[in-house]
Amino acid sequence: MTTASRDAFFMARALYLAGKGRYTTDPNPRVGCVLVKDDKLIGEGWHVKAGLGHAEVVALKNVTDVVGSTAYVTLEPCSHHGRTPPCCEALIKAGISRVVVAMQDPNPLVAGRGLEKLNAEGIEVCLGMLQEDAQTLNRGFIKRMTKNRPFVRSKLAMSIDGRTAMASGESKWITSSEARADVHRLRAESSAILTGINTVLADDPSLNARIDEDVVQPVRVVLDTHLNMPVTAKMASLPGRSLILTGIESQQKKSQLQAAGFEVYQLPCKNGRMDLVAVMGFLAGQQINELLVEAGSVLNGVLLAEGLIDEYVIYMAPCVLGDQGRGLFSVPGLQQMTDKKQLQLRDVRQVGQDLKLTYIPLV
């Protein structure tokens, strides 16, 4: 086995371990670490939850002799003191002789400093092994650190003729139970779920992740320009945070909603509705890495028009709702073919009787 193939093999294992923290590490990145000596795996670990040990520390914990070994880490070892001590110091102290890193940490507090510290101690550092896989695993963290906004994914469900509901608004259920279970996994790996007040008034959704695994519940975020949220809304009584982002100042209603369990924040408006760029910046400030949009055609239309969606996950059911049904997007101003919004298909798979289609905007 060549050095490159060996490095790829062990880094793939480290990435698998990092993925085990998919539902629990927020707001931290997902990181895995594998320790190898004489071509044998002697220790491994992953970051489970913010405040607990980082992957490198977990991997080192139950290994007695790592002197001269190689550490495979999916993200640059941190060099700063946060909730836990710097991981690069732990690797140095343990006597690691070589560190293979998938990608540099986009966090400005780290950003190459960990690699420099390892190099300064005479440790061989190799950067870039399976880098794209590592970037995909932490695309939300990367987006927040580099663009000051979350990675935004919109989840949509439609009939084969592109309708999300009957004309009356009835929509339960277009898709299969298997597709709905898959949506809960999407929710579980998201830092927050965003919807609009009209969806809340129509459906009174819970917007939580119901899966049989340990999960940090996503933050629930409602855009409510005129503060119409009922104090009896179901989500306020559920575990986790429920945020209302509004454009008006109404101290009395705000106090009532806060007493019911909501957090209420006033943000700028644009064209009579919430300024979505400001919303994304605010959510980044709340340490939201991945944002899942579950909303109606109006909010999805505005997000599409403003280019704020990074990925669309569309579940297409084998049914027809007819031309009076409700559509996916409300986008005024699309009059000619040159105005169309183009998407690129990235993945297709069957979930139950439905198709799960993943698209990204075509830049």
> Stretches where pLDDT falls below 50 for ≥5 residues?
none
Identify the overall geometry. globular
Total strands: the figure is 16
State Rg: 23 Å
Can you put this structure into words, describing what you see?
- It is a single chain.
- The protein is of the alpha/beta class and 363 residues long.
- It is built from eleven helices and 16 strands.
- The chain has helices spanning 3-19, 55-61, 87-94, 113-120, 131-137, 139-147, 177-188, 197-203, 251-260, 276-285, 297-305, and strands spanning 32-37, 40-46, 70-73, 98-101, 124-127, 151-158, 192-196, 219-223, 242-246, 263-266, 269-270, 273-274, 290-293, 311-316, 343-351, 354-361.
- Strands 10-9-8-7-13-6-14-16-15 form a nine-stranded mixed beta sheet.
- Helix 3 (87-94) runs parallel beside helix 4.
- The longest helix has 17 residues, at 3-19.
- The radius of gyration is 23 Å and the shape is globular.
- The two termini are 40 Å apart.
- The mean pLDDT is 92.
Short description:
Helix content is 29%, strand content 23%. With 363 residues, it is an alpha/beta fold. Helix 3 runs parallel beside helix 4 (113-120).
Write the layout of secondary structure elements.
Elements (H helix, E strand, L loop, with lengths): L2 H17 L12 E6 L2 E7 L8 H7 L8 E4 L13 H8 L3 E4 L11 H8 L3 E4 L3 H7 L1 H9 L3 E8 L18 H12 L3 E5 H7 L15 E5 L18 E5 L4 H10 L2 E4 L2 E2 L2 E2 L1 H10 L4 E4 L3 H9 L5 E6 L26 E9 L2 E8 L2
Summary tags:
alpha/beta, 23% strand, 9-stranded mixed beta sheet, single chain
